[in-house]
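Hi everyone, sorry if this is the wrong subforum. Our group has a chain we'd like a structural model of before ordering constructs, and none of us has done structure prediction before. Sequence below.
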Amino acid sequence: MFTVTHKDKDSKARVGVMKTAHGDVQTPVFMPVGTQGSVKTLSNDELKDCGASIILGNANHLFLRPGLDVIKKAGGLHKFIGWDRPILTDSGGYQVFSLATLRKITEKGVEFSSHIDGAKHFITPEDVIDIQRTLGSDIMMMFDECVHYPAARDYVEQSLELTTKWARRSKDCST
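Answer:
Right subforum, don't worry. Here is the predicted structure as tokens:
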């Protein structure tokens, strides 16, 4: 749940609070990136000392390594990494983008080869939500197609249409 606590009448800027199962997050917020569950070079205590109330993990990276079974056995991502505050997980859409030569996008989902071992995977928007549920994410991001730049207008429009369909499917399976 997000509650707006202040609005600036001139700029339309706003400040608020996101309530999650692992605590409140005041916005705007500094959100360190812990792609594979940990923020490189910083301990959890150091993150807390610098005011981090939330970290960002990447569902696709965690799905590939260490894998969902390992994280599930640990009791979820929070316990796996020893973090008692909120976690936002990114869907992995950018990784699909960055693996352009290793992936095939369809309306159903994306087939890609792992950058780790070359294994083939097929992931749908619904799978991405399930992966993030398994991780125990406080805030989940839906699967999207990131468009390269520059890109032809018709490709961008098709990508927007696909991402919108994926958003609806993600919402439908998360309620």
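For your construct planning: DSSP finds seven helices and nine strands in the chain. The longest strand covers residues 14-20.
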